[in-house]
Amino acid sequence: MRDTVRFGVNYTPTRGWFHHWLDFDLAEVRADLDSIAGLGLDHVRVFPLWPLFQPNRALVRPRAVEQLVALADAAGERGLDVVVDGLQGHLSSFDFLPSWTRTWHRRSLFADPDVVAGQEEYLRTLAGALADRPHFLGMTVGNEVNQFADRPHPDPDRVTPEQAQAWLERMLAACAAGAPGRAHVHAEDDAVWYRDDHPFTGAQAARLGAASVVHAWVFNGTAQRYGPAGAATELHAAYLVELAKAYAVEPGRPVWLQEVGAPAPLIPPERAAAFAEATLGHVLDCRDVWGVTWWCSHDVARELADFPELEYGLGLLTNDRRVKPGGAAVARVAAAVRAAGPGPGPAVRTTAVVADVGGAARGTRRSVCAPGGPVLETWTRLTAEGVRPAIVLSDLATDPAHLSSRGITELVPAGR
């Protein structure tokens, strides 16, 4: 870990989107990575498509793994560290699951012993292929795989929180077996923080893996409720960083803002730069932030069909690799942080909003933290008053050692 916050981007290839693995062209990848490096960023998160890399439970394609290593090496040559997501999983409204888990071979992604063993071998293989690369930071188990376990997915594989935790522990162990000593994490969408009774929990997010990972999207009702320039909209990513910290039991546990973006029309294109600068400014006022990885590097090509409209324009660069205003804004913030160098970090947040989520282990009342809920409303109001609030779970609000470890001296009930 470094004292200086890191800035990177989720790599979306300009030619063919993630389908580029079917027609892998290293020259095109290098051109994409050149345009990313030109923004002054320091890492990329990359996405092999699981069905293409492991089309059969007993086959992880060697050629696909070689192409992943070639992409990672090309990134390293440009000064970009690499994080690899394993189980894709779900990307930009599309599901990518191998045929040996669906239809005639329908088996639980989280509980079937053969499927889980196949996933372990896949993650071990990818991590092991990159284990000797100094620019390989680690694996992310998958991208928002929790979506497959609950509504609103149309065909979920239901699990209990205990089963979800056991699955996460096995997947993280598989990553560590392939690449010991690297920073392996798991990443879910905001259902872990906001949805009552969701089987993947905030406690798992904040206590398993090398860092707590946050995906902060304002199309979840935040921008709809508070507007594109509303305080809660521009504070949403920082709020989720603080909410992740509330669930942590390890003092100073790093938080990685792994996805954040400016989805149009909820954030109009003419406001993308202002949104980026405001969002990042608030996040940089949080302690223990490891880094920010913007979604995404390049726009999705318009000739590709059936994406939700907001997915086409999320890039920091256009599909022909021109820097957009939002990209220039992220580059400016990254350059300013890099120029400032390591420092003491933001001041401790001594006031905390108390969140009763129905117990950290199960989160039966997590919706109190969602947009419109009393925790976010109180936290936003206090921020507007200049208080700089943290969040503490009611489970831990009576633990003097926990409060002391975080420097919290004043508690404010949610809704007050």
TrEMBL record:
InterPro entries assigned to the protein according to its UniProt record, in alphabetical order: GH (IPR017853)
Domain of life: Bacteria
UniProt keywords, alphabetically: Hydrolase
Cited SUPFAM superfamilies: (Trans)glycosidases (SSF51445)
GO MF term set: hydrolase activity
Protein name: Glycosyl hydrolase
